[in-house]
């Protein structure tokens, strides 16, 4: 698996993944996102220097999911900063270990970016994601 930076050409792919019913069911916001609001969100994220958005790819460029690293809070020293990660895997690639690989890669990237602590927000009933986060070395899991 490789993580590549997201581009504006990924807009429809990201929107489709965001509005997948199983993703909506485990999201903090369970409502589908309109194309217009998603486009505005993507534009803002792509300009935000404190957020990195990646497309996870396998086998010569097949996109299978997305991951995000965003600065959660700033400390006096960047070495004490905390980030929040988020991710999802495309429906047809779930259950194959890609989620664990993606979260591990995001944690690794966050450490390379200098984040001292890595956290994520997971729905309390999403036991699969909780297990993946613990195994991947997430420092703090915030439940909702």
Q: Helix proportion of residues, in percent?
A: 25-40%
- Write down the oligomeric state: single chain
Distance from N terminus to C terminus (CA atoms, Å) equals 29 Å
Question: What is the count of DSSP helices, taking H or I runs of 4+ residues?
Answer: 5
Strand count, sense and barrel status of the largest sheet are: 6 strands, mixed
Biggest sheet, spatial arrangement of strands: 1-2-3-4-5-6
Which radius of gyration do the C-alpha atoms yield?
Answer: 15 Å
Describe the structure in your own words.
- The chain is an alpha/beta fold.
- The protein has helices at 11-18, 21-25, 35-47, 98-112, 127-136; strands spanning 2-5, 51-58, 62-73, 82-89, 117-122, 140-143.
- It has a six-stranded mixed beta sheet with strand order 1-2-3-4-5-6, sandwiched between helices.
- Helix 4 (98-112) links the parallel strand 4 (82-89) and strand 5 (117-122).
- Helix 4 (98-112) crosses helix 5.
